[in-house]
Amino acid sequence: MLSSDLRQKVFGEQTQLLITNYLMSSHKIDRERFKFNGGWPCLDYVNTRNWHSRDPAFERFTHYTDLLRWAEQAGLLGEVEAEGLRQQAERQPALAAAVFEQGLTLRETIYQLFAPIAAGGLPDPAALAELNRWLAVTLPHRVLQPVGQGSFAWGWVAGSEALERPLWPVVYAAAELLASDRLHKIGKCAGPSCGWLFLDLSRNGSRRWCAMNDCGNRAKARRHYRRSRNSSLD
Ligand SMILES: [Zn+2]
Predict the structure, then answer these.
(1) pLDDT tens figures, 14-38
(2) CA 192 to centroid of ligand 1, rounded, Å
(3) Which domains does the chain carry?
(4) CA 170 – CA 147 distance, rounded (Å)
(5) What is the three-class DSSP state of 59?
(6) Distance 49 CA to ligand 1 centre (A)
(7) How many angstroms does the Cα of residue 55 sit away from the middle of ligand 1?
(8) pTM reported for the whole predicted model
(9) Distance between CA atoms of residues 61 and 50, nearest Å
């Protein structure tokens, strides 16, 4: 058992490094299909769907290969490994479909964990139990890898043929966020039909939107419309 100071040192620094790397990589990638505004991998994963604020929900995941493409674009899965898993999914289509369904359930679990926190409440205990079940099957694949002269970093067992591979870093990211001191920075987009979650890393903690050029602009347009309509009625 790590003392709390040591835990803070080990996980705190590692988390900060992960945030920095994640933000840097997620800004460089092709965002044609998926968006990476959440500031943390498991929140971006949740944001592949517009949640209970829109009916019908907007869904970006339709097939197992979407999980691979998302993980690749998020910088959580290498190109070669993704291609290997794509071929593996072709060989085992029924298993790939089952893992895809698990991936959607995991996404709902993560939403049920963090959406209440974003609203100032506590996560659903059933969702926490579910995340712990995921951790039990995910953590055995976590390994330390050399990343240069005398440096090491956390990674995943290389070349795994397990179709769950794209979900592992999502599970781990959710656990890290939940155990971090950043829970008060989790927010939910104020857009009426959005529901996306984000980690507010702004200096003054004033973030309201998933993206300023998305829901932020729509809100601005609505304000402008209301103002112009009111003034035309004067
Ligand atoms: Zn939004």
Answers:
(1) 555 565 556 555 444 444 579 999 9
(2) 8
(3) 4-233 (1.10.3300.10)
(4) 21
(5) strand
(6) 11
(7) 15
(8) 0.82
(9) 11
